Amino acid sequence: MPKRSPDHPVDARTQRASLPLACPAPDVATPLLGGLTPAQFMRKYWQKKPLLIRQAIPEIEAPLSRDELFALADSDDVESRLITHFRRRWALEHGPFSPDELPTPKTRQWTLLVQGADLHDDRARALLERFRFAPDARLDDLMISYASDGGGVGPHFDSYDVFLLQVHGKRRWRIGAQRDLSLQEGLPLKILANFEPEEEWVLEPGDMLYLPPHIAHDGIAEGECMTCSIGFRSPSTNELTSQFLYWLAERGANDDNGKPALYRDPHQPAVARPAQLPPALVERVGGVLAKVRWNDADVSSFVGSWLSEPKANVVFDAPEKPLDEARFVARAAKDGITLDRRTILLYDSRSYYLNGEQYLLKEARKWLPALADRRSMDGKRFVTLSHDSCVTALLHEWYRAGWIRTGVLA
Ligand code: SIN
Ligand code: CO
């Protein structure tokens, strides 16, 4: 039998069973990717080259109406930006914005960007489910933009893989794979100094453009328009290194007695030049740093914990009047359970990572991976687990914390 690579470990039936219904299985051709299978798309385009897909989601409706988007932008815990290009001058303001602080839709050349819409609205979160043929660990967020006629954010590039899905009105996109990514100086936005578009299309509702990182692009609204950006983060090597070293340091090093290890210099002689950095001190620090060690398990722990950490503005809504455990179990057995839209649950062969914390899988390996992959569990499956009081106690704790809810979203 051929060996299976760990990234393709399952047959088609298992693939379907573990995926959310909205997401195409790796080997099934889908209109979402212009008739390619997710496997073909990942091989030919992901991180490699742009792809325009006409009618990726025919009859798409914007997950939020214009007024609902404006209402989100009025909230303190939502990240929003207003970009205007009035009289050829770029300006940027950060939200929240009350609706009367926004220009009117009839005013030309402005755009409102609302980051993390998936954290605030279940319909926005539901849209992301279609894109889970790429690992959750890479997913960043759903940004929704509203633009008046002529609005846009100027020619720029991102460090993200992004699917730009047109959900209302039309937008003209121009893109180019230029090497020169220098930026105009003195502007509040990152605008390319020398944009050299090579291709141009007008996207209508349902059309989608995939761009890998660092492709120059400029989207200009033709009439009022809304665009959803499904973004996948590509952390820089610098960010990975600094986050990992920070994680290692936080984990702390203890001495043989279990106390935090301290820098020590009992043989430091008295000095006549107090400002001079003693070479022996530098040598001792070098000795401490040379002892820093990590293994593959540490790297997995770091990656899982870091990538499952909720964004800084995320607050979970614990239920106001939580059901006690018995009532929770009865309700979940009837209606099933769903991960809250803000919950990030990842797993590997040893551990699971829930909202930034690592736990050993142990007995949970029987049910947790399927819950993490589908983000829900129906009542029938819950019943099969409910004889185990450890499982129900654990899930009740998650419910009380607001990490899961009862019911399965349609
Ligand atoms: C937008 O939706 O206005 C901008 C999205 C982008 O260019 O990344
Ligand atoms: Co962009």
TrEMBL record:
Bilayer-spanning residue ranges: none
GO molecular function: oxidoreductase activity
Broadest EC class assigned to this enzyme: oxidoreductase
Keywords noted in UniProt: Dioxygenase, Iron, Metal-binding, Oxidoreductase, Ribonucleoprotein, Ribosomal protein
Pfam family, one: JmjC_2
InterPro entries xrefs: JmjC_dom, NO66-like, ROXA-like_wH
Protein name: 50S ribosomal protein L16 3-hydroxylase
Originating organism: Paraburkholderia hiiakae
The gene coding this protein: roxA
